[in-house]
Request: fold
Amino acid sequence: MEIRTNHLTKKYRKEVALDDLSFQLSGDKIVGLLGKNGAGKTTLMRLLAGHFAQTNGEMLINQESPFNNYSLSKNICLIMESNNFHDKFTVKDILKISSKFYPYWDKEYAEELREVFRLKPKKKVKTLSKGMYSALGIIVGLASNSPITIFDEPYIGLDAAFRSTFYDLLLESYERNPRLIILSTHLIDEVSKLFEEVVILQEGTLLLHESVDDLANKHILLSGNKEEVEQFASNKNVIHETSMLGQKTVVLYDETITDPAGLKVSRASLQELFVYLTKEEVKRHARAN
Amino acid sequence: MLEQIKLNLYFFWKTSWMTLLIFWLIYAGFVLFMLLITFSSDGGIEMMGVNTFPSMIFFVIFGVYFFRETFSNVIKFGITRMSYYVSLMIYIVLFSILMTTISQLFIKLIESLIELFNITNFTFTGIDLNMIENISQWEFILYEALIYILLFLLSLLFASIFYRFGLKVGFLTLLVFPLAFVFKDVAEIIFDALAYLLIGSEKYQAFYFLIPYLVLALLLLLLTKRLSVVDQVTYK
Reply:
């Protein structure tokens, strides 16, 4: 599966959710879709699933638009944090209906997952707790085996243990059936090890699209004496800095460092990098470049 | 397209059967209660039940509920808007036939009970009201089905207007019809046109229903063919 957006724009009346977004995803992998609230992540995912049409530009999957295109959209499963299911149905109904609509549905696996998350089949969707509702979404998303499986913050209300179970199951499902899985999350540290690629959106535009390995290699965290660090980091792309008691730490991004001049070198976590990269001053810097 | 239509009809039925069952159970309970009262009054109370009107009200309410509950859900499963529309047209006809069948069976059931218990002070009829002559029972049954289809279509159309444009435009559209009666000339045209759809009227022909069906179906197509799953009333 190949996803390509060309100058993709989506407006809700006067509000611009996606602004001239162009990027490409291809192959089987787990992609992290990151961005602050209102960055346009959900809009992008809903456009992918054909929930509505874009205002301008193109959204293509294998060279075709997913909007009103059954041959594509039947292969896409989008699980959002809410409003996934008709709330008058029971858990059993949802699983049965999903088995009819998703062509690659694994019935036995769905039943296995239902037991893992301890969901009662006769319980109505509207009576499920937030966590159990999320669990139902996770079951449908994983058991659908859809060639493009998208999870938009699917863990709301799930406790840490069940979230961990979800990450394990996601990886296990991917290993068993490699496909393109897009996972949008704010709990980056919890899932960063799953991601092969990361797409970061900011205010409807693409801030960054890198493989996780490249992202790790492209940044460096330098610590040491304040004056020495400042001297070393001058004229370099600093995306974050902190000072304390005469010591300073800077995070350099997209800089080739061969000799760190005796300064302490380390790496930031993906969550930290995300925070540094999406700060307002960094955004301005990126735009200036 | 056929595969999608099958899936849609399956989803539509899953969404409707419980509502249909609840309606008929409540309605049957109510009619049986009335029957019991008239039976126990020993001729002191006289009652008449008209079977079709509650079903008509059901269609008006059900159409709104049905559109809201089905459109976004099947589109989220990857179904195209065109197949949703085609399935909707098929379902309107099938569901109306089913309702007419249940309605007729219900009349027969109540009539049998009246006969069994020899209740003379309770009359239960369908749309014919025993007032219009020279029209066969089958024509009344057909007319009942035609009315259901019309009401279902109309209700779905209004639901789609609310869904697409939100409350303001929705209520404005709803106001257009009653407001039209303020103008005498317009009201006369409307009444004249309605006579073509009124059984017992000299102008009536069953196939005249095709005209409002086509108009409503066309409007529904225009409203749904690129409709977003985000409802403009609840913004979900």
